[in-house]
Amino acid sequence: MWRSPVKIYVVQQGDTLYSIARRFNTTIESIMALNGLTNTMLMPGQRLKIPLYTEAVVTVDAANIRKGPGINYPVIAKMTKNARLPVIGVWKDWYKVKLFDASKGWIRKDLVERFIHDGERPIVGNLGFYTLEEGPTLPSSYNSFVNNTPYISETGLFLFQINKENPTEIVKFGDFTDQYVEDIVSIAHSQNIKILPVVHNLLYKNGGSKVSKDVVKELVSKKENRQAFVQNIIKLIETYDFDGVNIDIEDVYLEDSKNLSALYTELGKALRKKGYYLSGSIPARVSDEPFNPFSDPFDYGAIGKAVDEFVVMLYNEHGWPGSGPGPVVSIGWMDRVIRYTMSKMPKEKIVGAVSVFGFDFNLTTGKNTYVTYEMAMKLADKYNKEIIFDETTKTPMFAYVDEKGNQHEVWFENKDSIYAKIQKAWELGIKGIALWRLGMEDPQIWTMLRENVVVKRD
What we know:
Elements: E1 8-10, H1 17-23, H2 28-35, E2 47-49, E3 53-58, E4 62-66, E5 75-80, E6 84-91, E7 94-98, E8 104-108, E9 112-117, E10 123-130, H3 142-146, E11 154-162, E12 170-172, H4 178-190, E13 194-200, H5 209-220, H6 223-240, E14 244-248, H7 257-273, E15 277-283, H8 300-306, E16 309-313, H9 331-342, E17 350-355, E18 358-362, E19 368-371, H10 373-382, E20 388-390, E21 395-401, E22 407-411, H11 415-428, E23 432-436, H12 444-452, E24 454-455
Parallel strand pairs: 10-11, 10-23, 10-24, 11-13, 13-14, 14-15, 15-16, 16-17, 17-23
Antiparallel strand pairs: 1-2, 3-6, 3-9, 4-5, 6-7, 7-8, 11-12, 18-19, 18-22, 20-21, 21-22
Protein name: LysM peptidoglycan-binding domain-containing protein
Domain GH18: 124-458
InterPro entries: CFLE_GH18 (IPR041704), Chitinase_II/V-like_cat (IPR011583), Chitinase_insertion_sf (IPR029070), GH (IPR017853), Glyco_hydro18_cat (IPR001223), Glyco_hydro_18_chit_AS (IPR001579), LysM (IPR018392), LysM_dom_sf (IPR036779)
């Protein structure tokens, strides 16, 4: 059962609102508002609810963020309606807020509505992965992104690939223009959303995992190659005004593990010098011991130290070729992987990446077919099947028999299963969740996020 982790502090002799605000990284004003205080006097033994997160939501069509608390300070950013800004300070008629690139600015109080959150709802970040259209069954992420910006704190554009011909270089993945990317970046920044390119070694034409592994081997084999790649990452960030990068390297030879860790370490140092953000998407593992060839090359300790954000890809617990039926990410699997990850790095860096897709498992032939939420619902409707929510795994599923007599089980994700994973992330104290990928999800996820979750900007 969900229990609210509302924090109560009992006032001690000598405490002041200033000292309490500093201790809990909040503001005097937020403590007073949350507790209905009309003055700053405190009494020993007094119980105070502690604000865990305060945000200001823009209520006008356009609002300036200024370098200081006054209209004579220069404008450093412009926000549009519904942009959400973490409040980190107050001065007279101004809020001090944190921006998408970790810089600080000031906004007038009369341009926003303030919300103070005490933990009655989970407070988590939400990284939405963004892809282009891949045929009629895999729609573009565009509409999902632009229609739900208040409930996305960070976006990863899966639009860039390590060049197979020269792995120190980065090429576009898909058919899009520079202007298309610039427009997405502009929308993100105007809503105070951090935006990163995802640079990956996946889905090469005429090549399977061996090609992906060979690309990584060449990239990480020599320091000069790694350094050239680092410079090209910086160039990519600066070309499109990104806030950093997400590295999604997956297929790797075990013997390249140390060199891969060196790439993350060198990239992290170079990006931090320039004020850029390093996020890494890493396959799931649960032990220091060999687990499977896919995740064994990834040294969680070394990579976790190098990155600002460690996105652990919890999919596919089930769904890989030859796997039996079951959820893509069960709640038990999520708990197991995240707890191992927490043993290797500060939990505040960790993001649990969960699927919004599922699989149709043909139990007769052993073939697994990828399904979006919409596809799963159409199958349930076609075969007149009731959706069952499996309480053990916190996952929806149904079974059916097709026209050829084949037995099927369909395991997928909906608003309730994603909410269960959000609760788990909040319970464990990690940074948040990531959704792979926008455009494939249950549309009711966004209603759930609006009503039951506080989506935190970092």
